[in-house]
Automatic annotation (TrEMBL), chains A, B:
Gene3D superfamilies: Farnesyl Diphosphate Synthase
UniProt similarity note: Belongs to the FPP/GGPP synthase family.
Domain of life: Bacteria
Cofactor dependency: Mg(2+)
Keywords tagged on the record: Magnesium, Metal-binding, Transferase
PROSITE patterns per UniProt: POLYPRENYL_SYNTHASE_1, POLYPRENYL_SYNTHASE_2
Native species: Pontibacter korlensis
Protein name, as recorded: Geranyl transferase
GO MF assignments: metal ion binding; prenyltransferase activity
Pfam families: polyprenyl_synt (PF00348)
Length: 324, 324
């Protein structure tokens, strides 16, 4: 079964999910956010991981859906907290309805995510739910740290990596671990897949930070420099602040809190110049490579023939837009 | 083991719970709301139910705690939605911190509630989590209906009973069912306990509505007529509106949206007069009695000697402040 067939199976499972009917104010927002789409990368990782150990991935379909429902629950609640107007180019739930609706519909989504895991074989259920719960709490911790960092003057690179690990990476790691556990994979293989996913997740987020500044505008689909304009403490910004001399530091600081579109071009240009002086692009690429190599090291350690691991390896490379 | 010893065991379990440490912004509000106390009625029902079937209730302690953590999660999120300034006489979490904190800490509480159930014996785990999840979703549905009703002109008595069943009663029912299941009670006994709890829950909420108008001010601890002042659609109000003649209806409607303290006494007096004319007090007492008798009928149907059921029966009577 190739990746396209898996995707189709997954999409079929997702669109067949029933969250509830009444009251409609509670359930319509769930159907709305789930219909916004997205790359469905997390549930796909569950299935690809499962497929490494057993071609028959039927029993991984609902657990894969659980991960996607959980992910969208976090988006629904994060969007309230971040006051985000748009999600995937459409109105966010709290904008289209209101914050109360987004709170309560999100709560039910978390419940439904757990329910989708309850079909897991009895002897694996407690373990799966324990790991899922740990991951869920970590994702919340990551979101809290992200909000804390916005209000803080100083954030270290180490703290930043810890935050994106919790907020973004651990759910990718869990997705891969879940697929392995469902198919009865050896514990060490499941753990290596978890570590592979965590590290790919970190690399992926760093790459996101990088592309925001150095990405191809047409390819990336977002405004170049959006993070700079909104004073976001990304890996690039934190590295620059750590290494800047007094003048460079002053340049960055002088642009802070200026977020108006009219000065956007000047601000992005000025901060990018500092980045260029400090060779931030290259340093970030090195870090991405470091985490990616760590990830590959864990993939290599899995006790399976190379060809069984090639699809996941390929997907990771594709996420990184790399050739090898 | 008497009810006081059970309560002590329960309080010990609750105060020994560890929710997490970092970031403290996420976990402090959880410790705060859990320390506000309350009657702990739901976890106590879990233990009393468990004790009916087996004196050794050790294995029910963490599941009982799960129910209390879940209940406090719903309070934390409901208080945001209801813009409530106080909870048990103290600042609500969204007031003491902010709404984002209350959203995210609440989310983690729901995760922790699930985690506290994961020690349930393997062969019972899926069932327990399925019933818990169903109950959790129902409680959210009840809160949504409650919010809907605030904005609606017309609400039928039937719809109101449905709402309080979901919002309040089903968690009492689940608590009792949970205790029975954990001790391996026969399915029919667990189901009768669930029905007993649901009906006691409805009766209890109706009694709450009644006491708000006809309660002894000193005993009840709240301002008499608070529901009338805030135009709350209680059982009493909805029954009155259904049975009022045109003049009585106009009296009630003329006071609507007048919530200032300066007119409080006059408003409460005027609406209570209409209630008195329509004999609403007696009708509500009849309804409470109806649901209470339904509850007792289910308790009687449980296949255990009478003395095993006397503590729960006594507690229900106590909740109703009845002698028999």
């Amino acid at each position: 079964m190739d990746i396209t067939t898996l995707s189709e199976k997954l999409n079929h499972t997702l669109s067949a999910l029933r969250y509830g009917e009444k009251p409609k104010e509670l359930y319509e927002p769930i159907r709305y956010i789930m219909a916004l789409g997205g790359k469905r990368i997390r549930p796909l990782l569950v299935l690809l991981s499962a497929k490494m150990f057993d071609e028959d991935v039927e029993k991984a379909l609902l657990p894969a859906a659980a991960v996607e429902v959980f992910h969208n629950f976090t988006l629904m609640h994060d969007d309230i907290m971040d006051k985000a107007p748009l999600r995937r180019g459409q109105q966010t739930v709290h904008e289209k309805w209101d914050a109360n609706t987004a709170i309560l519909s999100g709560d039910v989504m978390l419940v439904r995510a757990y329910e989708l895991l309850l079909g897991v074989e009895q002897d694996k259920l407690a373990l799966v739910l324990r790991l899922f719960s740990r991951t869920a709490a970590e994702v919340c911790e990551g979101q809290q740290l992200d909000m804390n960092f916005e209000r803080r003057e100083q954030v270290s690179i180490h703290e930043y990596i810890h935050m994106i690990t919790l907020k973004t990476a651990v759910l990718l790691g869990f997705s891969l671990e879940l697929g392995a556990i469902l198919q009865g994979a050896p514990k060490s293989d499941a753990e290596h897949l978890k570590a592979f996913g965590d590290n790919v997740g970190i690399a992926f987020q760093l790459r996101d930070d990088l592309l925001d500044v150095y990405g191809d505008k047409d390819k990336f689909g977002k405004q170049v420099g959006g993070d700079i304009l909104s004073d976001k403490k990304t890996f690039l910004m934190l590295t620059a602040l750590e290494q800047a001399n007094e003048q460079q530091r002053q340049t960055i600081i002088s642009w802070r809190d200026k977020t108006d579109e009219s000065i956007a071009e000047d601000k992005v240009k000025a901060v990018t110049e500092v980045y260029d002086q400090l060779n931030i692009r290259h340093q970030t690429e090195q870090q991405i490579d470091l985490y990616f190599q760590k990830a590959i090291h864990h993939l290599d350690a899995i006790q399976l023939p190379k060809e069984r691991k090639s699809t996941i390896r390929g997907l990771a490379l594709q996420l990184m837009e790399r050739d090898s």
